[in-house]
TrEMBL record:
Main location: cytoplasm
Residue span(s) of domain OmpR/PhoB-type: 128-228
Location of the protein in the cell: Cytoplasm
Domain Response regulatory: 5-118
Keyword annotations: Cytoplasm, DNA-binding, Phosphoprotein, Transcription, Transcription regulation, Two-component regulatory system
Residue positions where 4-aspartylphosphate is found in the record: 54
This protein's name: Response regulator transcription factor
UniProt entry tagged with the keyword Chaperone: no
UniProt superkingdom: Bacteria
Native source organism of the sequence: Thalassotalea psychrophila
Length: 235
C-alpha cells in the first residue's frame, strides 16, 4: 500500500467521487477541489505527490491555474484533456504540465499513468543527490536541482530537469524519444505523442534566453543530442 497524497481538481463531482473511491482502494490519499480557485489554493498550501488537473474548470481553467503556479512549483501535474484536442495538450505541456491523459479514460489507464509518474519520482529521489554535470556552459546542480546557463539561473519543471539531465549524461550521443519517454515519463512512446517534443522545446526556449546558440540538436525522427560545443563540431 502507498501513502501517496494526490490532489484531484475537476468540476465533475460524480466523477471525482468515483475516482476517489477507486484510488483510495488502491492505497492513495485523495484530496479534491471542484474549481480552479480552490484548486490553486490547495496546490500552493499543501504538499502533494501528484496533481490531477482537468482543463475545463470554473473560476480558473486548468491553463490559468498552471500559469498561476509558475515554474517554481515542482509537484508533477497530469493534465486531463478532451479526447483528440491536440491544442489543449500542447498548451498544457508548454505551461509546465508533466504529462496528459485524454478524456474519457478508463480508471485503470489513469491508475497506470499515476503509477508511472510516481515511480519516476521515486527513482529520481533515490538518485545520488550530489551529482552535478557541466557541459557547454550549462551547469546542473544535483543537490539543489538548479540549472544555470552561462551563469544565469534557468527555471525548469521537474520533467524538464530530468530530460536535460539525461541528455547531458549522454553528451554528444543520440538519446531516442523512446528512451526519454520510458525513462522520464515512465511509459512507452505512443504514436503521434508530442509530449517529448514539447518538453524539449520548452528546455530549448529557456536555455536560449541566456545563450545565442542552440545546445540541443534534433535528429529528425530519432531523438536528440546535447552538444559539447557548436553543432559544427558534432559528427
Amino acid at each position: 500500500m502507498t501513502n501517496k497524497h494526490l490532489l484531484l481538481i475537476d468540476d465533475d463531482q460524480e466523477l471525482v467521487e468515483l475516482l476517489t473511491e477507486f484510488l483510495t482502494s488502491e492505497g492513495y490519499q485523495i484530496s479534491s477541489a471542484f474549481d480552479g480557485v480552490s484548486g490553486l489554493e490547495q496546490a500552493k498550501t499543501e504538499q502533494y505527490s501528484l496533481i490531477l488537473l482537468d482543463v475545463m474548470l470554473p473560476g480558473l481553467n486548468g491553463f490559468e491555474l498552471l500559469k498561476a503556479l509558475g515554474d517554481k512549483h515542482h509537484t508533477p501535474i497530469l493534465m486531463l484533456t478532451a479526447k483528440g484536442d491536440d491544442t489543449d495538450r500542447v498548451l498544457g505541456l508548454e505551461l509546465g504540465a508533466d504529462d496528459y491523459l485524454p478524456k474519457p479514460y478508463n480508471p485503470s489507464e489513469l491508475l497506470a499513468r499515476i503509477k508511472a509518474i510516481l515511480r519516476r519520482i521515486d527513482i529520481i529521489q533515490n538518485k545520488d543527490k550530489t551529482l552535478s554535470l557541466e557541459h557547454n556552459h550549462v551547469l546542473i546542480k544535483g543537490a539543489t536541482r538548479e540549472v544555470f546557463c552561462h551563469n544565469q539561473l534557468v527555471l525548469l519543471t521537474g520533467t524538464e530537469f530530468e530530460m536535460l539531465h539525461l541528455l547531458m549524461e549522454n553528451l554528444d550521443t543520440i538519446v531516442s524519444k523512446e528512451q526519454l519517454s520510458e525513462q522520464i515519463l515512465g511509459r512507452p512512446l505512443s504514436a503521434y505523442d508530442r509530449s517529448i517534443d514539447m518538453h524539449i522545446s520548452n528546455i530549448r526556449k529557456k536555455l536560449q534566453l541566456h545563450a545565442e546558440l542552440d545546445k540541443i540538436k534534433t535528429i529528425r525522427g530519432v531523438g536528440y543530442v546535447f552538444m559539447s560545443g557548436d553543432e559544427s563540431d558534432i559528427e
